[in-house]
Specification:
Number of strands: 10
Distance between the termini: 26 Å
Strand order of the largest sheet: 1-2-3-4-5
Largest sheet: 5 strands, antiparallel
Order of helices and strands: HHEEEEEEHEEEE
Helix content: 10-25%
Oligomer: single chain
Strand content: 35-45%
Number of helices: 3
Amino acid sequence: MMVKRNSLIFLTAFGLLLTGCSKSGLEITKDDILEVARDDANATKSECENVSIKEQKGSYMVSFNTNGGSYEYKIGKDGIIKERSFKRGAKEETTETEKVEEPVKEEKSTTSKKEEEKSSTSFDEGQQQAINAVLANSGLVQDDVSNITCSLDSNTNQYTVTFVLNDVTTTAVVDAATFTVISTILG
């Protein structure tokens, strides 16, 4: 099920790229914002009830309920989650609220003499697993791409992997605990 969702995100992002994103930046729709929130909550469209999306000062406020509890998100127009809140069950027994801060990144990137063509790697084991997950999710191998970077955001426990394929930069986010690709953005 996760592969289908990740494939859907990848295809949606690819479709947005092909439909002519302007040079001024990628315009993210309310459907895209809802997909970011549902993906973060690991909930399918059919599991979500009472969905609400409101635009508010450069962000979207998203809320919905699932069998496991209720979720509230503040997501920037760039698709980045700024705040999240989860309430278990109907009784609101446990509440977890997290303010998402700007990522603190540990970055390693090395490139060979043929920097434009391929990049050589010098990544730790976790970074390499994240890179392998992204490439496998995209149907690629490391020799297919160039300029690979991988950084760990210690606040969210997620890796950000970027690479270039056919002059298009791809950025993917990978869960550092499970090495599951969470999202992929082209452009």
